[in-house]
Structures are given as structure tokens and as C-alpha cells.
């Protein structure tokens, strides 16, 4: 992928307005939110590109057989179409690429992180009427089909391989060292999926200090979600300081300290000390 160029400030403001509006709607659309994330990352993703990505999801859904059967039949149909016929899958190297977290790039490359490949599965299957939902297993996102008592899991990162109960236990044990808990198999809320995607983008950028621009927009989009960790405000403040925006960072640090002081005055004082140090850099 070419180095992504950010959108203009005017375009970014419009994208963020639409992102916040969609996130606060009665039924947030997962594909729309993911594509808006992609447009914030890639200034070349214009309205025609956003529409083309939605059309591609529609096209793929149209290639599925009509009502193939129960949950397992749906999982197999998705595996045969997306994994085998279309070649969507993942590989370890995909964790090192920003485009692996951008839906429009995943649709073109047919490669991505487990959660983005799962978004493709979810959006294609949903359009075809499948009983599908995301399952946020620790460390590895998969998709589920059917109700609890007849749940079938599939792993889009592995080309849509249908998972046995033992397979799911191995995935969880590998990530946490503990046994699988039934709560881990519950359907994931679309906004939780988007936050997890943005967390992956932040993790990618954290390993590359020169890409603090990516870390900053990922944090700022996360803050537009109706529910988000309060500590993201602290992270944003520190990123502003890192990027040389000392006064803006100091203001954010003071605001965060005011929030923290209600539960931990010691931590609040440390944050105020960071704000003082940031202002000192202006001299």
C-alpha cells in the first residue's frame, strides 16, 4: 500500500460528523462505520470509493445460494464463497500492515486482520439474510451463526473454517491461557466491533512512533463513539504533546486530571504535572 495521505481538514470534519451521527443512530451500520474509518485513514477514498465498497458487499451477497439451510449450512456457504472461491483469508504478515484494518483495502486485497475479515463475512451474510453475528473471542475475532443452543462458529482469518468446540477452546487458551467462558460467545455489538478495530489501529501506530498522526485520528474517532474508555482522553493529550501541540495537550491533560481527581487525587496530580511540563516546552 502507498503511504496513506490524510483527507483535507474539511473532508475529515465531514467524515467525523457522519461517523458520530452513524454511531449514535438507532441501528448503527457496521460497514458504513468501517468505511468512514478507512476514509479518515486514506484521503483518496472518496464518495465513489465508499459507494463502490458497499456495492461489492452487495455483489458478494448476491453470489450466495438462496437460504442454504441452518447455521452450519450458512457457515459452509460463506466459507465456500468467500474463503475458497474469492480467496479471503489472513496471514501473520497482515498484522504489520495498516490496510489490514481498513475495510475498503480488505475488499480489494482479500487479506486482513481477523476482525476485518469477519466484518466482510458479517456484512455479506447479513445482506443475504443469514442469522450471523460477530463473536469477540479474546485475541481472535470470529463469526457466529444461529442461536446459542445451535451456535456454529467460523474463522474468516482461516478462510472461514468451521470451528469445533475444541477449536474455539484452543483459540481462547492460546490468547488467555484460560478455559473458554460462555460469555465470550455472545454476539458482539457493532460499536464494540468498531472500537476494537480502532484499538488495533492504535496498536499498529504505537509500534511506529513516526505515525503518531494515525494514532491521533484513531483515538479521536474512538472518542466519538457513545461509549469509550475515559483514559482515551489522556492518550489523546499525550499524543498532542508528542506531536508538538504543547498548549492543546496541556489543556487536555488538565481536563483529564479534573475527571480523575474524583477517584484518585494522586493520579490527578501526576497528570497536572505532565500538563505543567507540556506548557514549559512552550518557552
Question: What can you tell me about this protein's structure?
Answer:
Helices cover 58% and strands 7% of the residues. It has 12 helices and 4 strands. A 4-stranded antiparallel beta sheet has the order 1-2-3-4, with helices on both faces. The protein is globular and about 65 Å long. The protein starts with 8 loop residues before the first helix and ends with a helix. The mean pLDDT is 94.
How are the SSEs placed, and which strands pair?
Blueprint: H1 9-23, H2 30-41, H3 47-62, H4 71-85, H5 103-109, H6 114-127, E1 132-137, E2 140-145, E3 152-155, E4 161-163, H7 165-176, H8 190-206, H9 212-223, H10 231-242, H11 246-260, H12 265-280
Antiparallel strand pairs: 1-2, 2-3, 3-4
The spatial strand order of the largest sheet comes to 1-2-3-4
Shape: globular
Largest sheet: 4 strands, antiparallel
Q: List the total number of helices.
A: 12
Mean pLDDT: 94
Strand and helix order: HHHHHHEEEEHHHHHH
Q: Tell me what portion of residues adopts beta-strand conformation.
A: 5-15%
Whole-Å distance between the termini?
40 Å
Q: Which class do the helix and strand fractions yield?
A: alpha+beta
Radius of gyration: 20 Å
Helix content: 55-70%
Total beta strands? 4
Task: Report the uncertain regions.
Answer: none
What attributes characterize this protein structure?
283 residues; four-stranded antiparallel β-sheet; 12 helices; globular
Amino acid at each position: 500500500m502507498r503511504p496513506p495521505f490524510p483527507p483535507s481538514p474539511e473532508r475529515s470534519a465531514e467524515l467525523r460528523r457522519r461517523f458520530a451521527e452513524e454511531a449514535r443512530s438507532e441501528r448503527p451500520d457496521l460497514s458504513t462505520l468501517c468505511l468512514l474509518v478507512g476514509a479518515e485513514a486514506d484521503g483518496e477514498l472518496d464518495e465513489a470509493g465508499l459507494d463502490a465498497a458497499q456495492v461489492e458487499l452487495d455483489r458478494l451477497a448476491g453470489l450466495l445460494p438462496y437460504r442454504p439451510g441452518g447455521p452450519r449450512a450458512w457457515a459452509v456457504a460463506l466459507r465456500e464463497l468467500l474463503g475458497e472461491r474469492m480467496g479471503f483469508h489472513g496471514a501473520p504478515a497482515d498484522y504489520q500492515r495498516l490496510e489490514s484494518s481498513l475495510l475498503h483495502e480488505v475488499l480489494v486485497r482479500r487479506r486482513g486482520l481477523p476482525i476485518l475479515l469477519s466484518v466482510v463475512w458479517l456484512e455479506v451474510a447479513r445482506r443475504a439474510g443469514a442469522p450471523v453475528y460477530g463473536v469477540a473471542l479474546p485475541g481472535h475475532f470470529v463469526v457466529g451463526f444461529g442461536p446459542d443452543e445451535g451456535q456454529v462458529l467460523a474463522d474468516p482469518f482461516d478462510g472461514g473454517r468451521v470451528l469445533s468446540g475444541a477449536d474455539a477452546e484452543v483459540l481462547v487458551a492460546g490468547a488467555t491461557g484460560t478455559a473458554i467462558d460462555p460469555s465470550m460467545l455472545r454476539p458482539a455489538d457493532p460499536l464494540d466491533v468498531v472500537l476494537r478495530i480502532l484499538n488495533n489501529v492504535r496498536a499498529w501506530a504505537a509500534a511506529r512512533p513516526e505515525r503518531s498522526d494515525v494514532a491521533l485520528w484513531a483515538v479521536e474517532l474512538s472518542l466519538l463513539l457513545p461509549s469509550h474508555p475515559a483514559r482515551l482522553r489522556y492518550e489523546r493529550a499525550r499524543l498532542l504533546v508528542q506531536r508538538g501541540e504543547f498548549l492543546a495537550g496541556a489543556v487536555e491533560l488538565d481536563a483529564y486530571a479534573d475527571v480523575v481527581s474524583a477517584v484518585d487525587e494522586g493520579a490527578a496530580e501526576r497528570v497536572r504535572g505532565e500538563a505543567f511540563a507540556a506548557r514549559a516546552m512552550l518557552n
